[in-house]
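Reopening this ticket.

The earlier resolution said the output was attached, but the attachment link was broken on my side. Pasting everything inline this time so it's all in one place.
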Amino acid sequence: MYISLDWLKDYVKIPKNVSFKELGEKLTLHTVEIDDVIKEADKYKDIVVGKILKVEAHPNADKLQLAIVDIKTEELKIVCGASNIKGGQKVPVALIGAVLSNGLEIKETKIRGIKSLGMLCAEDELGLGDDHSGILILDEKAKVGQDLADYLELKDVIYEVDNKSITNRPDLWGHFGLARDIAVFLDAPFNDEIVKKSNEEIYIDKNEYKFNIKVDDKKLCPRYLAVAMDNIEIKESPAWLRKRLIATGVRPINNIVDITNYVMLETGQPMHAFDAYDVNSGLDKDKEIKIGIRRAKKNEKLKTLDGVEQELDEEILLITNQEKAVAVAGVMGGENSEIDDKTRTIVLEAANFDFVSIRKTSTKLGLRTEASKRFEKSLDPALCKLAGTRAIELIKSVCPGAKVAGAVADINNYKNKIEPIELDLNWLDRMIGFETDKDEVSAVLFRLGFSVEALDESKLKVGVPGWRAAKDVSIPEDLLEEVARIYGYNNITPLMPKVEMKAPEMDQLRKFENDIKKMLALAGLNEVYNYAFVDAKQLARMGINSEKHIRLINPIAKDKSLLCQSLLTNMISNVALNQARNDKIDIFEIANVFLPIDGSESRSFGSKDVLPSQEKHLAILCAGEAKLDLMAKTKGWLELLSSKLNLDLKYVPQEIAPDWVEGGQSAQIIVNGELLGFINKADQKMCKKCGVKKQFVIAEIKFNDLFKIYERAGIYQFKEFTRFPSLARDLAFVVSEKVLYNDIKEEILNFHDYIKSVELFDVYRGEKLGQGNKNLAFHVNYQAGKTLTGEEVDDIQAGLLKKLEERFEAKIRDF
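Inline output:
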């Protein structure tokens, strides 16, 4: 984007001691990145005023002429193809080495055998307009040999702004907004007269036309302002207007189009002017101007001002006459409503559109215009009135007979939702790195347009102005940036942060996970890593309802479309893939599972939507031949783990087991009194459906809950060895198969205070025991705060046997 220094001076009084180069440096330090500072005169270096002394026919070409041109220091022979030159005219002459606006470098050359020592220039070749019908003829005031820049009075300085640096600053896409920032960091007077005028009612010269405006989608068009003006005379813009447009890289067209472009470059608000009668063919009769704002219809087309017929879709917003489209909203007008020499009545439009919609439309159509660049940054809807008032003022100045010919239509559905921001000055000082002055901070923010109210000695309540509330200032950090940049980042003394040298804090959960992995790996288990995705077909084979699983929108494969709720499903696949090469498979995995309930993590920063609940699980799977006691083996791994962690592990029968579990081979895992998971033996029918030829048992527990229990239990507590010896007794008895080991163990431990530990060392089943019975053999250790005698232990054990017989019908084995 190009910014004119002369234009900026209309709104800010720049101190005389600030040079144009220094201003460019200050802009980079305080507001926007300046890519280049260009003296406008430099664009016309080595281009001078020359006087044609005579014109001769080219000896070797019928359509070429040879002009003898006086440039004061010498006379040059220049070959020219234009037919409008003659002796006595003063013309722009590009000398050898000059570079024209289109990038053409002038060199000494031969044209049809005649040496040409320069070039006579047309208007478009100088970037002064579109005319290429002939050489630009200068008036008699031009002095021979004078630099063309001096003749054109080009004394402006142009700043080239890096557009990326103002992506989040829609208020800086015009000279007025940039001048406001300059006034603050230079502490210079700011002229906001156009704002004051925009707060006044627009004067209606005659009440001839009325508007009928329909906005179908108020979200995509929060504000639409339109005004009708007649007695318009389409002509060339005055020199001052054309000069400013050319300086900022915009081609002059005619006075009305030029003014809409001028207002956009000045205020940052794009405007559009329609021919009122092209938009509404029956305007002569009813004097009603109909305008509609709606989405395009399917397969609708519109030829835009660039002559291209655009194919539209239902996401594109259009400006219509309530029947046919006349413009692509926020991007480009239609050819069917273009201003031309016959236009006498116009509709001026200043609107505000949803920035996302404009960005998408611009991308779809491949049209990135000066208007769309601004709309996609999210403009302040209040700019509509400012731009409309300014455009009316300028049109009346260049067309003295122009009149506002009807009531102004202003459809406003916008509300500023930005709440005041509380700014803690103590926090501000810590973040900036030095102590700020409260009054100075308030003054900076106030001059930038913020409202400031003191809440107490260290806190301010800051109201955000509309032009900074769109995609810009919303949190205290934004206010910090405002204060720091105006103060000057270059004025802040850089200091190394004071960082305490200490070891990084240990992630205890991660350490616990690594420790568990080491324990299991050293014990002989192999760790596996699986995707978190499962196949609905495999779940069906296991009798699991897949509808309760979270479905992925973009799965990596068709058979990976659901998030797992258990580690079991993927570990079955591990067995199926490795069973041909291994007689036994002992594996474990620690990974996340995903549940169809709300979790605690938000989907994105500041969002109220949350991600599904995630739990980390630990699964151990043992697979092998039928003759192996896989249940006992898997329990062994769990008991090894519990002993290493000093936790109490128990098993409780699972009353209702999943469909894939073999009957009677299912238990819940209880750790320190809390239910953590299950241990199940797989049903052989299910295994076959899943392609598994081996038997397997799997245990799965909630890993994070295990960690919490471990933390609560604390580390091992050491105590003194007792001074008194223990006595051990072996106890073997026959009970029903229905009697559970845990129940017997609990009964023995709780029978007497002298019983300190119980260990099962043998289980026997045989014909001698009878159908449905089993023999359990225990080591029972007795210990007290004294030396126990054999008689004392025998008495306790006799009572114990009687108790076991009463509760479990236990019989001492006598064979």
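Reporter confirms the inline version is readable. The radius of gyration is 44 Å. DSSP finds 24 helices and 38 strands in the chain.
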